[in-house]
Amino acid sequence: MQLARRFRNLSNRYPFAGPLMWLLTFQFFIAEIVTANSWAKLPYSYRLNAISDLGAVGCGLFDDDRFVCSPLHGIMNGSLILLGITMAVGSVLLYTRLQKSKVGFSLMTLAGIGAFLVGIFPEDTVFWVHIVGQDLAFVFANVALIVFGFTLPAPRVFRLYSITSGTVALVALVLFLSHHRLFLELGGMERTVAYPLLLWLIVAGGYFATRRVRN
Known about the structure:
The chain is an all-alpha fold. The protein has helices at about 1-15, 15-25, 25-35, 75-100, 100-120, 125-150, 155-175, 185-215, and strands spanning about 60, 65-70. About 70% of the residues lie in helices and about 5% in strands.
């Protein structure tokens, strides 16, 4: 109860705090580019390598089919931890401010916890926790986008964008998990699952920030 009151006071005093949390998602793309460009021996492939390969702490064959060696894995894992925190905290602050779509913001908070776990436990450490975190992030976040499309107080075009992003990503997730990766391969299909969410967070953060300015 006291924690909820603190979030409410923070949201009222700093209305940009929630949108800013989501806008910080852009740091993921910077971290991804920097980490991928640092790869040793073999170049990193956005099509063939998984996103999680960038956070692997060791060098060698992983999953019996991919060579991984990411010298700047700390940057990628730190980025994922920060992403999880900003997803979760931003969701709590925005819900406190809007008092709409409790289910959507709850799901996005759980997805943030999942992203946090992915960063804390890289794929070549405690693999099962890494996968649990990944599934939490992918499933809950993209379902949240669809929920937001029906419940957020936003223009029709934004709500349609939310539903479309979540639907595309969930279809891609089914294909990804069933190993029907088509010409996109492992990395390309995984990014079809992840990128719509990440871009949506940036767009939504910008929307709610400018909406607050107009108000």
